[in-house]
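DMT family transporter
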Amino acid sequence: MVQHRDRAPGRLFRHGSGSISALVFAAGAVALWSTNALVGKFLLATHPVSQVQFLQFAGAALLFALIRFMKREDAPPMAPRAALAPLAVGFIGLVGTMVLQYIAFASMPVIEANLVAYTWPLMVAAAVIAFDNPRRPVLLGLAAALGFVGVALVISGGRENSWFQGDIVGYFAAFGSALCMAFYSVMVGRLATSPDRLLLPSSLVGVALTLLWSAGEGVAWPSGVDLALGFYLGAGPMGLGYYFWSRALKLEGSGKVAVIAYLTPIASTLLLTLSGERLTTTAIAGAVLVIGSCIAVGLERSEAQDHV
């Protein structure tokens, strides 16, 4: 009995310490992700998606390679079959999410593409309802449904009852980006692979694909400030953002961490608004529903984790 009492505080302390670390990592990811749409909007005004994406993946690959070098751990090589799942999760989560997101940014109003792309927490909530037997599925489902109503309002825009103000491909791309990120967020915490080993191969694949894409378009390469901003998007929102988020999910799962992640559409929408982007009254109502639903879903899942 005495030994049990002695060990319990240690376990609680380690759990609390892990929770704090997870929240710090998640907050770092949100801070970086919040700048993604704003910087991307600036670069896409003068450069094609392919170039911006190449700079992003190049910056992310350099960062992940540096992290691997600094860790200097002798991790045993994985068997080819065992490596397929991490490669698939990394490719869908990193390459799929970012390429589709930037196609959306270039094809429709950035502020709307950003809101649609950040519906991935609602998709995670739908997955929880379907597979994880949550404590209050009706409440979770209602919050997610209201969020998707908000997405419909954002897409409608309230402009003379006309939907799809941008290229329809952009809306499908934004929704596809959200699906990819939802898949990644559900799966990454279930893999034993470290974030750097998970993301480095995917970023290298992204470099190769976007290099071929941009070379095929044959346009002048950016330089100076634009070059620096492109590498920032890679090392910052894509590189450290994904690395921090992956570390947070591995430490804490998706309970309290989820609440922090749902702050991203709030901060990024605020930055875009300050830069001159505007939403109609209808789209603002949709944005409120999307953001409010994300927060409600996050709080419900956090409470459920505490209860467990």
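thats it. The two ends are 24 Å apart (CA to CA). DSSP finds 13 helices and no strands in the chain. bye
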